[in-house]
Amino acid sequence: MNPMKTKILLAEDDESFGILLREYLQAKNFEVDLYTNGEKAYRGFEHNRYDVCVLDVMMPVKDGFTVAREIRAINSDIPIIFLTAKSMKEDVIEGFKIGADDYITKPFSMEELIFRIEAILRRTKGENNETQTQFNIGEYTFDSTKQLLTFQGQEKKLTTKESDLLKLLCLNANQILERNYALKSIWVDDSYFNARSMDVYITKLRKYLKDDPKVEIINVHGKGFKLII
Predict the structure, then answer these.
(1) Same domain as 169, residue 64
(2) CA 154 to the chain's CA centroid
(3) Residue 145 sits in a domain of what CATH number?
(4) DSSP run (H or E) holding 14
């Protein structure tokens, strides 16, 4: 991915940490505007074009959740990543309800932030292809509308969640499908129960695709899954 033209709104009230993040992102060829409170971030969003918003949750004047709601009122599609020092499930769910695309709990590595941003940009770039319903998966064919997986004339009727998950994997074929994104897209939130449920569905899909040795769904530790074709 070439992030040369990607412009990021970064809202972080810890100015020293914010400057560090901005310099690191700039070193990776992103354009970055740093704002030190929520009100400044929102005003900046009103007057500039951004591709991604990275918002600290705990900020003075306006917190990250409030800023995200106001940004969503202007632009319902722009990707939003929350930075949070909290790990409480309620905060994560609140962020996803607002429309967050991802969140990162502090402390985190700079490399992880880059990974999250680039993964979101890949998804955003590929959103125009989400109307695709026919997929070739090695020797398999998959019709997501009819929820049919076909191998050498033999049809397998998939459940709705099986079909939705396989479609996400196909749209991200040979790339990482992030767990959080899949959970938010199909199960709405990333609760423990839903995460375990998704693992069960991944196991089922592996079983359905086992007859073609050139097809594999692998786990990418700490990140998600990858459909390799």
Answers:
(1) no
(2) 34
(3) 1.10.10.10
(4) none
